[in-house]
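Dear colleague,

Following up on yesterday's call, I've attached the two folding results inline so they're easy to grep. Please treat them as preliminary; we haven't cross-checked anything against experimental data yet. The first protein's sequence and C-alpha cells come first.
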Amino acid sequence: MNQDAKCQAGGDDWCCLSKLRRPTSTMCEGHQQQRRAGVPYTPLRFRSPNGVAAVRQTTPCEYPGCPNRKVYGLYCGAHQMQKHRGTPLRPIKQWVPSDTLPGWSQPWVETRGYAWVSRKNGIKRAEHRVVMELMIGRELLPDENVHHLNGVRHDNRPENLELWSTLQPPGQRIHQKVDYAWELIRRYDPDHKREPGAISNTRTSSW
C-alpha cells in the first residue's frame, strides 16, 4: 500500500484525506464506521481517546431530555463520560452566561472552595484569575497568583483580590538582587510613576 494513500470519502465541498491504516481499504476508520452505520458520509469532527477517528453522529443523545448529539454509542460525550466513570446518568448542566464576566458562565464552587467559570467551547478557568486579568488588563504570568484578602476562596469581588508574585532572585549576590529589582520595576512600574509602597491592583480595563 502506498504510505501516503488517503481516505476517498468526500462530498461536493469537502474531502477527508485521512491516512489509510489498511492496504485493502479506500476509507479511513471513521468513514468505514459511517458506512457500517448506514449514515451519509460527513466530515469527522473529532478523534476518540484511542486516536481512531470516530463517527459524526446526527441523532440526539438517548438520555431523556438531553439536547446534545451522540458522540459514539448511545450517548453524548458528557453522558458517555458519566457512564465510563460508573456514576449514575444525570442531566448535564446547561451553560448559563455570567452577569459580570462577558463570555464566561455563571460560577460554580468546587471541592477546594474555589469558584470556576467556563466558556461555551468547554474551556474552564478559576474565576479569581479571570477577574484579576480584567482588573490589570493583561493575562497573568506563570509566577503570579491571586490572594483572597478575607480568606474566602469563592469571594471574587475585585476589592477582595490582591495580585501576588512568586518571582524570586536566583541567588544572594548583589548583582543578582539588583537585576531582580529591575525586573520587578520593568514588570509592575515601567514608567516609574509610583512611590514606594504605592503599588496596588489597578483596574485598567472595562468589564
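Below is the second protein, in the same order (sequence, then structure):
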Amino acid sequence: MFGSEHLAELMAKFSGVVELFRAMRAIPQACGTAIESELVQGADAMVARAKQLVHHKSGKLAATIHKTVERGAASIRVTISAGDKNSPEATWLEFGHRLANLHQEAAKFPSAAARASRSGSTEGYVPAHPFFFPAYHQIITPMKRRLGERIGVSVEQAARQG
C-alpha cells in the first residue's frame, strides 16, 4: 500500500517529536508558576477591595480580612476570609441579621451582647452591608482574563525553550 517514498514523507512530517515532548513536559511547571502568581495577586486585590467596601464602624472587621496561602507538592490553595471563629460579625454584616439573634448569641459572642445592650432593642432587622461578595465579583473577571493571558504566554515560552 505504501511505498518507500511515502514512508520517507511521513517521517519528515514527524520531525521534532523530541523537542515537542520536551516542550510539553515544561508546560506544567511554567503554567504552575503563572497560576500561583496570579492567584496570589488576585487574592491581594480582593482583600484590599473588601477592606475598602466593609462597613467601617470600628475598623475591627476590616483588620480581620486576610488571605492564607497553602502550597502542596502540586497544588496551591488561596483562602480569603473575614472575621474569626469567635466573632460572626462578618457573616451578619454581609447578609444582615435579626436583632433578636444578638441576644440569643450573647453567651457565645461577647461583642454581640455589648451591641445588643447598647441598642436596648430585641426586635428588628439590621440590613445587609455586603463587602465580601461584591469584592469577589469585581476582582474575579479581570483575574480570570489575566490568568488566561499568563497561561498562554507561559505555554508559548515553554514551547520556544523546549
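For the second protein, one point worth flagging: DSSP finds seven helices and four strands in the chain.

Best wishes,
A.L.
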